[in-house]
Amino acid sequence: MSEEYVLQLQHIRKEYPGVVALKDVTLELKAGEILALIGENGAGKSTLIKCCSGAVIPTSGKIIVNGREFSSMTPQLASENGIAIIYQEFNNVKELSAAENLFLGRPIRKGIVVDKKAMEGIRAVTYQDRSQGNDERLDGRLSADGGDR
Ligand SMILES: Nc1ncnc2c1ncn2[C@@H]1O[C@H](COP(=O)(O)OP(=O)(O)OP(=O)(O)O)[C@@H](O)[C@H]1O
Ligand SMILES: [Mg+2]
Questions:
Q1: Residues with CB in 5 Å of ion ligand 2
Q2: For the chain, which has fewer Cβ within 10 Å, the N-terminal or C-terminal residue?
């Protein structure tokens, strides 16, 4: 365990009647890191993400966010701890920018006014992007391609 991780999942297990959706999943995510979770249909990707967002309660395991340990999340706890899930297409608000979708429900405000500039100034960068001087802003629109289940 370490302070440098923003998210740690330890030995997450999720059982549904008749199916074990997640079996001993452990992963660690550092600040600024982008981690891809890849697997075939039914591998458990959505279930794992839902455990992080509080939509699904794991059967066992630990979720550690910025060093705080949880046996399960609730949507409110997830939100309070900076976990936001961006679903593909149907669940996004097309009229809003990528940044506005990211901050949906918890916009950055200046007084009572939503501070669009502040939200769009948050940069999506990896360590590699940073070293290459890539500071792409989040003011683009989200793509309507793909789908999630
Ligand atoms: N609410 C549920 N009740 C029962 N079984 C479920 C439920 N949700 C998911 N499962 C089962 O858990 C397993 C993992 O499903 P999950 O949807 O997490 O996979 P996935 O990797 O997201 O798949 P896909 O690529 O198709 O989106 C599958 O066997 C699925 O049938
Ligand atoms: Mg899925």
A1: 45-46, 149
A2: C
- End-to-end Cα, the chain, rounded Å: 32
Is the CB–ligand 1 distance for residue 39 below 6 Å? yes
Task: Show me where the domains of the chain are located.
Answer: 5-80, 91-149
What's the CA-to-centroid distance between 2 and ligand 1, angstroms?
31
Q: What digits encode the pLDDT tens for the residues 38-75?
A: 999 999 999 999 999 999 999 999 999 999 999 999 99
State the pTM of this model: 0.72
| CATH fold for the domain made of 5-80 | Rossmann fold (3.40.50)
